[in-house]
Amino acid sequence: MRNWSIFTVRFGGREVRIHLTFMVLLLFLLLVEVNRSGPRVITRVFIVTGLVLLSAFLHEFGHVWVSTRQGSPIKGFVLLPIGGLTMGDPSAQEESARNLRKEISIALAGLLVNACLAGVTALAMLAMGKAQMLRLTPLVTPLNLVTSFFWINACLVAVNLLPAYPVDGGRILRAVLAQRMDFRLATRRAVSLGQIFAGLFMLAGAALNIQGLMLIGFFIFIAAQMEERTVMFQTVVEAVQMEDIMLTEFSILSPADTLEDALNKAVHCLQDDFPVVSGGDLVGVITRQTIVDRLRAEGNGYVQGAMSKAFEIASRTESLGSAFRKLTSRGLSLIPVVDQERLVGIVTLQHLMHSMGLLNESRRLRRRMEEQS
User: Fold this and answer.
1) Class of the CATH-defined domain 243-360
2) Is the pLDDT of residue 3 over 80?
3) 239 — pLDDT class (breaks 50, 70, 90)
4) How far is CA 188 from CA 170, 360, 364, in A?
């Protein structure tokens, strides 16, 4: 989710990111509107893009508000011009998606927000005697920001009614499918339908010479690709066990080691995180950055005084998905792997993605060799 997106703000404890497709939207509007009306509209083009961003943010906030009230908190979301994608605990999202009524209420919340924004804008224009301007083309133009705001929200409602995952209609479709099949299979099928809709929009836009349709299709395609990769990642991490990727050759520290000795050991190895072991028992963890910070602030001391005693452990046969949730839920960077209370390996965020890539390639090569034999 964090690929190709920019962190903007933390709102209500939730991370809000903007996907780079907003840059595509901005460049598209600049090319079209400057060519149509001249350089004088450049500032207003930025405002129109901001209105799309505001509408998408309020759309996602509707999802977040209802989801939180129903006991499914969301950690953050990535904003796209067609809405957004939520970031949260995969197991909690799966549980929510299996509850059809809950998923429908969460999905409809975003639609209702945009419908209300469009309705309030239309009523305001009617009160000012300018309702006829809503029918003028182009519907979204920097020359009339109020009309543009109405049609931006109307388009968000229309697009999110499509059964094209990951827009809201597609979320409802996935919830319906999840009632009768595996959750990840339901997600894959909903994503495939979303990609079909994306292709149809782009083809229709090219055939009818309507660039806006092509752009909507492109945004749906990007969102569907992001969701597909997320589902693939979740499928892999649930199938992989800790013993498949854990580091078995690693350095450890003792509580009696000085911070200078610990830093010297850190310099000569590639680890950023170290388990602290005393008499064969795991008693804490410490990071390279903590060692450096303590040395700068307090001078030389002992590892025992700087290590963290708050850590999670995993067994050899525990799924990577379970361990990954332990890491991210508590903001940890290392999780020790134990077998019969003995430290046998470690997994760190530093090497996690690298190991996943190698493991995937190893399995692909093994399958190819089996097919050839």
Assistant:
1) alpha beta
2) no
3) confident
4) 11, 19, 21
Q: Where are the domains of the chain?
A: 5-239, 243-360
Rounded to the nearest 10°, the torsion over CA 175, 232, 168, 44 is 170
Tokens matching residue 259? 């911070």
pLDDT at 127: 92
Model confidence at 103: pLDDT above 80: yes
The Cβ of residue 32 has, within 10 Å, a number of other Cβ atoms equal to 16
What are residue 3's phi and psi, to 5 degrees? Answer: -70, 135
Select from 22, 152, 168, 171 the least CA-distant residue to 96. 171
Residue with tokens 């361990």: 323
Q: Give the DSSP letter string of 185-247.
A: HHHHHHHHHHHHHHHHHHHHHHHHT-HHHHHHHHHHHHHHHHHHHHHHHHHHHHH-BHHHH-B
Whose tokens are 């009523």? That residue is 123
CB 87 within 8 A of CB 73: no
Residues pairing with 343 in the sheet: 338
**DSSP helix/strand/coil, 130:** coil
Residue 329 φ/ψ, nearest 5 degrees: -65, -30
Residue where the block lists tokens 């809405």: 83
- Residue 151 tokens, joined: 């049609």
Report the C-alpha gap between 236 and 319 in whole angstroms.
Answer: 10
